[in-house]
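Hi R.,

As promised on Friday, here is the backbone we talked about, encoded as structure tokens. Could you run it through your design pipeline when you get a chance and send me back a sequence?
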């Protein structure tokens, strides 16, 4: 990163760069976790958990619910089931929340201890696992520990059913999952969105004909509506995946599904949930294009979370999309509308400015009136008057004309700061642009600022020039007349 020769210059290089970064993080994490003995000293203050090896050994040996929670958190399936059985034998009640977590763990891993994850694959490993037998999925076993614990429960809620149904679908017991859903309805319970999502994805596995598959999917969607269960993004994804196995019906129904998804996407997910998936998927699993980022902007705007734009801008920079003029201007437009985070947005605006000026050895973007206006407004909101003034000079250098509203905003900041000279300079700048609002600005400066005689004369000059009147000569040593005094000018400048 310090060597400009190695800095990425186009989208392909930026994609390779970000994926390499993510790969490096995964490799480092794997090395730390497989060799914890080399990372026993903690020099960080305060403690930074992500820099230390993950704890994988059990510390609590006594029979207690805390020990059960520890085994669940470490994904020790067999040990967690044994601890649960010991608690029941000792007559100790286990909370429903811990029971939910235990069922989730058993069903996720199909009642087996998970294999070590995040192990880098070598060529020998790839060749070794090419046989079909090595790819056989773990299948759901009849009366496994998940079903046994479920049947022992005195009360079963939707969350308990959800864990088993999801586990059954994940591990191939599709018909049993639908039977469990029927049992849920018979017990007068309402399914959650996770149950519907997995049942929709499993629909092609329990019906033979294409039309029967789609009828089952449509029936599940109708039941969602009847039970007032709101769909999420995974619901639409499950429908689209299932439609891939519905033959000729797929195209028509997929288009309808996509239209529904576009209409509901921005309101069905909370922005925090959207950002959680964004952080999980980008850039290691998904490299977003400009349109994907615009969709994210829309979600932020809908949820009034424009304060998060600086973090998204950093990603745009790292992904190499900061050379897309339309995308950059959209970021500025959204930031200019926010009223709650002036400091962070102003810092971000200055970074956006560096893109227009040209950095990282790349040519700058072309300044437009809107981009100049948005950056200047953001700087004024944060009271960064000097940087905002420098932006006004760019207007002049690039033959762009600032709006009357922007100049009025600048004058308001000058009034708050008590900066008389800056206000005078602002009027002179307005005159240089030959703006019709120059005389109005000059009158405001005369009325609201404590000016020197020289500054007052200059402002009266701009007012009278706009009215095609004449300014009379004066002496700085003479007494200071009132605004509109005939000794100074024709007096017309005092008229409204």
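Update: got your reply. Pasting your designed sequence below so it's all in one thread:
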């Amino acid at each position: 990163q310090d060597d400009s020769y190695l800095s990425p210059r186009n989208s392909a290089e930026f994609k390779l760069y970000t994926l390499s970064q993510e790969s490096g993080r995964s490799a480092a994490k794997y090395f730390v976790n497989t060799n914890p003995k080399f990372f026993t000293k903690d020099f960080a203050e305060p403690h930074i958990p992500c820099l230390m090896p993950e704890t994988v050994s059990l510390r609590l040996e006594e029979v207690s619910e805390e020990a059960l929670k520890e085994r669940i958190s470490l994904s020790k399936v067999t040990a967690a089931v044994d601890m649960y059985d010991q608690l029941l034998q000792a007559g100790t009640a286990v909370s429903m929340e811990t029971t939910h977590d235990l069922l989730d763990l058993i069903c996720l891993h199909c009642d087996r201890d998970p294999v070590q994850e995040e192990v880098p694959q070598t060529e020998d490993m790839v060749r070794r696992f090419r046989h079909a037998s090595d790819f056989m999925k773990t299948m759901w076993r009849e009366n496994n520990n998940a079903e046994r614990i479920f049947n022992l429960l005195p009360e079963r809620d939707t969350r308990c059913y959800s864990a088993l149904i999801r586990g059954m679908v994940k591990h191939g017991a599709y018909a049993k999952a639908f039977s469990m859903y029927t049992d849920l309805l018979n017990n007068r319970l309402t399914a959650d969105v996770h149950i519907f999502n997995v049942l929709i994805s499993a629909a092609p596995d329990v019906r033979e004909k294409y039309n029967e598959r789609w009828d089952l999917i449509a029936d599940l969607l109708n039941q969602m509506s009847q039970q007032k269960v709101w769909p999420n993004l995974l619901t639409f994804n499950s429908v689209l995946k299932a439609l891939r196995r519905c033959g000729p019906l797929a195209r028509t129904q997929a288009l309808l599904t996509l239209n529904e998804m576009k209409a509901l996407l921005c309101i069905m997910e909370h922005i925090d949930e959207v950002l959680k998936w964004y952080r999980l998927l980008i850039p290691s699993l998904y490299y977003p294009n400009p349109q994907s980022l615009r969709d994210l902007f829309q979600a932020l705007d809908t949820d009034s979370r424009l304060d998060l734009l600086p973090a998204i801008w950093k990603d745009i920079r790292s992904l190499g999309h900061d050379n897309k003029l339309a995308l950059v201007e959209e970021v500025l437009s959204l930031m200019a509308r926010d009223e709650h985070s002036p400091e962070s947005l102003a810092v971000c605006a200055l970074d956006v400015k560096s893109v227009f000026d040209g950095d990282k050895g790349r040519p700058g973007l072309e300044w437009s009136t809107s981009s100049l206006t948005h950056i200047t407004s953001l700087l004024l909101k944060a009271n960064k008057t000097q940087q905002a003034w420098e932006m006004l000079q760019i207007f002049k250098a690039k033959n762009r004309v600032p709006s009357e509203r922007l100049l009025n905003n600048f004058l308001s900041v000058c009034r708050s700061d008590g900066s008389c000279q800056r206000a005078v300079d602002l009027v002179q700048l307005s005159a240089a642009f030959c703006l019709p609002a120059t005389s109005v600005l000059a009158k405001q400066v005369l009325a609201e600022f404590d000016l020197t005689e020289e500054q007052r004369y200059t402002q009266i000059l701009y007012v009278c020039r706009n009215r095609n009147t004449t300014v009379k000569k004066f002496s700085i040593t003479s007494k200071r007349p009132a605004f509109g005094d005939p000794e100074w000018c024709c007096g017309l400048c005092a008229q409204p």
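One thing I noticed while checking it: DSSP finds 23 helices and no strands in the chain.

Thanks again,
M.
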